[in-house]
Amino acid sequence: MTEQAKVPAIRFAGFTDPWEQRKLENLASFGGGHTPPMADAGNYVDGKILWITSQDVKQHYIENTTTMISEKGAATLTLYPSDSIVIVARSGILRHTIPVAKLRKPATVNQDIKVIQTVDSCDSSWLLQYFIASNKTLLREYGKTGTTVESIDFAKMKSTALMVPYIEEQQAIGSFFSRLDDLITLHQRKYDKLVIFKKSMLEKMFPKDGESVPEIRFAGFTDPWEQRKLGDVASSFDYGLNAAATEYDGQNKYLRITDIDDETHEFSKSDLTTPLADLAMSADYLLKEGDLLFARTGASVGKTYLYRQFDGMVYFAGFLIRARIGEGADPEFAYQATLTDAYKKYVAITSQRSGQPGVNAQEYADYQLMLPSKTEQQQIGMTLRSLDDLITLHQRKLELLQNIKKSLLDKMFV
Fold this sequence. Notes:
CATH class of the largest domain: Alpha Beta
Number of helices: 10
Helix content: 25-40%
Structural class: alpha+beta
Distance between the termini: 21 Å
Number of domains: 3
CATH superfamily of the largest domain: DNA methylase specificity domains
CATH topology of the largest domain: Adenine-n6-DNA-methyltransferase TaqI, Chain A, domain 2
Oligomer: single chain
CATH architecture of the largest domain: Alpha-Beta Complex
Radius of gyration: 27 Å
């Protein structure tokens, strides 16, 4: 029986030749660097030469905030050209991923970085995508655990056998993924800027400690804000349903601490469940418009979620506390107040326990927040909610592009 030719599931038109097995060491040369002595200040003063460390190489890109060293510091290092591949060979995060990226400008590297320069028959953009596509496999095969840091057995990794197409197909694949990466980076930067902008707006639209008005206000509002307890504007504080989770029945959703997204604070519906309880007797745990939830214990203590009608029929679980915001306050404003540094500071102090951290219902009720008129609350809440929606939109676009890339990597490499 004839062995089937090794080809990927998806190929560009015009390429039909089978891929050939080659060793990594035959496709590239390998180098590295070291750290100039810190004691010699002249190595770092008036730096003009890029010096990459393991902290600079993120999952698939190089952080902009990289170190510049002096010509004296770089004198004993190799200056690698742009398009060289840098791969972290020693770090404290290698149990999760092997950070790998490509230089966009000439640079030197420290001792934790290996540099790969491809030969003429291998396209560097294609090889970079191979490392990304094979990241988990390479980590499993060549990762070495340590007491404080992990490392990659690079000597062994050089002998990796990989399936390689001819250079023209490599270039087509590499160019395609480079454009896709640029698009992903564009959305990542938009998302990052919006997140930073939202943080800035929270700082400016709520009064600073000891002040009665914020730095930024909508026109027409001049009255000072008043300090009130959260318990003064909530009609009740209730603990959640103590019930196990069971398979989702298609209608009744069960919200646990882990179902609240750490970044967006939205109800993540990737793993829906239903409470294993008599729901006819559990109506008190069904969320309504204006319900604000607080995580009461563990590493997520203080995390909040504001119920919205589009989330459907939702029951809240036992490690959550519900504050039912009354008529005197705007629920969206109260929720946004829980994203401020003042609230985070309160939780950090109040949650200290002899065991795991926790904040109970009475302690949440005692939280002091600054309140303007309800009309001003609504304006602030609506503005910050619109910004949250925009952030979520970019996050979803980013996740979609990342998922598309992951799927294509699986199908365009052997």
